[in-house]
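Q: Here's a chain of 255 amino acids. Please give me its 3D structure as tokens.
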Amino acid sequence: MTLLIIEDENVAKKQLINYLTNIDSTIDIVGQLSSIADCERWFAEHPQPDIIFSDIELLDGNIFTFLDKHEITSPIVFTTAYDQYLLKAFDTIGVAYLLKPFTEEQIKKALDKCVLLKSENKKSYSEDILSSVKAALKDISQNSYKQRLTIKLPSGLYLLPTSNISLIKADAVLLNAYDFLGKKFPLTGTLSQIEQQLSPAVFYRINRSELININAIEKIENQTSDRLSVYLKGQKESFIVSTAKTPNFRSWIDK
């Protein structure tokens, strides 16, 4: 069985290779690509593999910009930190959609599915894809709020668990997340978009520019009769709960 890996995150790539080796040592990994440019060159020079394991957001673009332009017939197992590409994935030759961090058991099930599709006694392709979509939708619905944010750094992609985020702060055109040690991570999008992706039981927007994690609160002080100062782990300064937010904030921390 020949297998191609398209992944730009070294940690995820090494983990995937370890899982594949443990599952079946005879798997022949014929290529390890990390960009759209790599895909263009590789497919121009090699026959299509039996199976493709592919990330979606690569350093130089989205894998679908490549797939939409080329006729890829190999079944694809998508491994990604994003859930919004689910339906797009199954519009292609996708047979499984695994959200990072994936497990060895998930990888094995995806491989078994690919083998089943190639066997003479397989179910119809449409039935199997429908089953895959239902399973993926169930997995996503059970984790409707983000469990991690993907941080784009010059060196690659970094997965920041939302449980490690103390503060998300919008400053002019910049949006940054801070962990419990005060380390800063650049984010894309707007504060409102990020707020909608996080659990309201854990994160609360205390004013127009700051979103905090309830587990990061060290101390709360009265600033005035209707305004509060909040001190967070990893942050030297305090943060002000706006007058309009104070009543709801008090209810939120008491839940």
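Q: Can you summarize the key feature?
A: Residues 80 and 99 are 5 Å apart (CA to CA).
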